[in-house]
Amino acid sequence: MDRDILLSTTRWSGRAMTALHIAWRNVTGERRRWAVSTVALGVAAMLVIFLEGTSRWITGSSTAYVDHTGSQLIVAQRGIDDFLFAQSAFPEATMAQVSHLPGVASVDPVVGVNGVVSVRGTHLPVYLVGFNPGQSGGPWKLEDGSKQPHGSEVVLDRGFARVAGVHIGDSLTLFGHQLRIVGTSAQTDAAGDFFLFVPLDVAESIGGVGTVSYGLVQLKPGASPRDVASQIDQLPGVHAVARQQVAANDRAMITTSFAQPVQVLAVVGLIAGVLIAGIVLYTAAVEHSRDYSVLKAIGAGAGVVYGSALLQSIVLSVFGVLLGWGLATALSAAFDAWDPVVESRLDLDLVAAVSALIVAVNVLAALLPVRHVSRVDPQEVFKA
Amino acid sequence: MSVVVASRLTKTFGAGRGLVTAVNDVDLSVDAGEVVLVVGPSGSGKTTLLSMLGGLLRPTRGSVRIAGRLLAADPLQLARQRLGTIGFVFQTFNLLQAFSAVENVAIPLRLMGVPGRTARRKAADVLEALGLQERLTASPKTLSGGEKQRVSLARALVADPLVLLADEPTASLDTKAGRDALEVLSSSARQARQACLVVTHDARLADFADRVLRIEDGRIFNS
What we know:
- The complex is a heterodimer.
- Helix content of chain A is 55%, strand content 20%.
- Chain A is elongated, with a radius of gyration of 29 Å.
- In chain A, strand 3 (104-119) and strand 4 form a beta hairpin.
- Chain A has helices spanning 2-28, 31-62, 64-68, 93-99, 158-164, 200-207, 225-233, 243-287, 289-298, 302-338, 348-365, 367-374; strands at residues 73-77, 90-91, 104-119, 122-131, 142-145, 153-157, 171-174, 177-185, 189-190, 193-199, 211-212, 214-219, 238-242.
- By secondary structure, chain B is α/β, with parallel strands linked by helices.
- The mean pLDDT of chain B is 92.
């Protein structure tokens, strides 16, 4: 009995290896076509992977600021539950009231000003953040320089600095203020909305003296966020929103406005990849019809014949995806080096998921050639 | 003892007024070690007969037994039954272009589950026996017609089948290469006690056969 199982396993693995061997040779037998097919599929895979990475960057970057504030609650003007593109304003005096509430360890004021800045003939959307140096609300990752602007100083997003062609030490006029650049920050490009950080009083002079936009609340250990929020809600003109809720709202808005169009482009890339794979595989199957009839005549079972056709799809897809991954990584690095305005986050889990999807969809595309192979008549072997 | 036994084998195509009887009520047997030549002109039913004997075409009526076993009706079982039991030799060689000579010959063994290295070694032995020791790794594209046919013969012989079925094995070869190929085929069949049936339009090959049959309009006659 054990010997039968062993023999059966050997036969199965032998047939599987034969199917793989046939698939490999059919795909790679003609090097020029193999190269062209792989490159075509690789470019399609690159598009899909890069665009999916861009979509992830758009979604992730939209909440990067809020995620890095470290606060549990955010105080905002009543009726405002968002951060990006929202304009919240309430009296600065409210901050003192919040700070005295039970359970509140600290509350740091932030002034946010949405605007468009013209630099070197380009109009760029910016989010000017005023914060108190030494408190939360400032940049969290620096590319270069200082993260603590004082007086008439500014920390710029590195992408903005690149587009504006300015460097640390240069001066820049923003919202009518002459500011000296002391640092460039990273991860502060929220889907193309560049964050610029200035001292609170500078932002107040732009957004309105005596008013702040948000309060970043740190709770005392053991304090209930819900209880503290309900106390803040009692104060006039403001309410408290959980940081995660603000992030979720911003993410939803950005996804609808920016990420979804990118997703549509990614789907177009995926469809192009499937069409390429389908055409390549179908052509290969048609050209190798005689080979399949020979295999069928010799006695190859359905597993070997259909398996080899399917494996061709997998072999081609795997090579296309690997090439696409490499190209997407190179493209992402090129953007980062030359034009750090658009990013593509090629996280391993995203690449793995997208690659698996591409391979799976290409296997579906192989159904047409498999159907063709299933109809190949072994009697073809007798045709001269 | 007869290895191949065909009884009242009939194949028709079409229906009604368009009905064509390609093979008509053929009784045929081939013994172990016997070489039978079936000679007939184009359209006489040679290839249809060979297809049915090899289990590649289902007869309209009649039956085929190989080594006492009826050919299976189920296509999957039939494929398994063919594998290693029947060796085919084709007019156009039908070598897989993406495979080398030795890989082509190893295919039946690999399909039977023989490990790759063992299969290639045995395939190389058979090719060497046919004088192709220098061409083991050659691509079919670089082989001459005679070499291709010898590779095709090696592929048919490698799994030591009970039956060898050859369809016009000399038609694509010059006279000398054709006679060489048939010499290899017939001597192998006699030596290994294989039942060998060759269909051809070339009656000059009769001297290689133990028995010659004539086929006309789908009917078999003793020559």
